[in-house]
Amino acid sequence: MPRPQKRPAGAAGPDKKGPTGKRVRTARAGEAAAQRRSSGPADTAASSPQEKSPGNFWLMKSEPESRLEKGVDVKFSIEDLQAEPGQTACWDGVRNYQARNFLRAMKLEEKAFFYHSNCREPGIAGLMKIVKEAYPDHTQFEKSSPHYDPSSRDDDPKWSMVDVQFVRMMRRFIPLAELKTHHQAHKATGGPLRNMALFTRQRLSVQPLTPEEFDFILSLEEQEPS
Fold it and tell me: Strands 160-175, 123-136: parallel, antiparallel or unpaired by DSSP?
C-alpha cells in the first residue's frame, strides 16, 4: 500500500495486549484529504437527550495531555478533533485484537463517546460519529511510528482504523469518578451501568456500549454532579 505523508499528533488509551495502543494522528495523502474536505463541518448544536444511532454505540479513549512516545507527542483531545479540517480524523494506533475487532465492527454514523484517559481528570468529554468504516492503519508500516509492527504485511495488514467526526461537546464533562459511583450502585440494583466495559474491561481503548448505557450517560448531562 502507498505510504502516507506524516504529521505529529494524537493518542488513544492503552490496550491490554500488544503495544500501548496510543494513537499517532497522521494525514493520509490524497484519499484522507479528500474524505475530510467532502465531510464538511459537523453539527455542533446541542442534541436531544435521545441521540439516535443506526446501530451500535461506542466509547473510545484518547489522551488529552502531552506525552512523548518515541519522540512523538501522542496528545489528542476532543478539542484537537474539533480543530481538524472537517472536524474529522483517523483513529489509528490501536494494537489490541479485541479493540481492533470492535473498530472493524463499526458502521457509518454510529455514535461514540470521546473519553479522555490517562490524565488528571479522566472522563467523557463529548460525542463523535463514525464517518469511514475500518481500513488498514498505515502506522503499522511506518518504521518511525510508535505503532510500527514489523510482523504486519502489506497484503495482509493486522491493524485497522476508522475515521471519526466531531459531533458536539458534552453539556458538562462526565468524570470517571461519577461513572464509577453509578456503576457501583447499579451492580446492586441492576441499573444500566452494572456491566459497563469501562469497569469490566478497563484497559480496552475501544469499547462497545449498550443503548441503555449510552442513554443513561447522556441523561447525566442534565443532572448535578453526584
Answer: antiparallel
Report CA torsion sign: 210, 212, 218, 220.
Answer: negative
Closest CA to 22 of 38, 11, 30: 11
Distance, CA of 40 to chain centre: 20
The residues, any chain, with a CB within 8 Å of residue 46's CB and separated by 6 or more, are 168, 171
pLDDT band at 219 (very low <50, low <70, confident <90, very high): very high
C-alpha 139: how far from its chain's center? 16
Rg (CA), the chain: 17
How distant, in Å, are the alpha carbons of 8, 82, 143 from that of 57?
Answer: 29, 20, 33
Contact between 180 and 134 (Cβ < 8 Å):
no
Tell me which residue of 166, 24, 8 sits closest to 95, measured CA to CA. Answer: 24
CA–CA dist 61, 116 (Å, integer): 6
Report residue 198 CA to chain centroid gap: 13
**Cβ atoms < 10 Å from Cβ of 216:** 18
CA-closest candidate to residue 11, choices 53, 60, 46, 44: 60
Beta-strand relationship, 160-175 and 206-209? unpaired
Q: pLDDT tens digit string along 35-94? A: 433 334 444 334 444 566 678 999 999 999 999 988 888 899 999 999 999 999 999 999
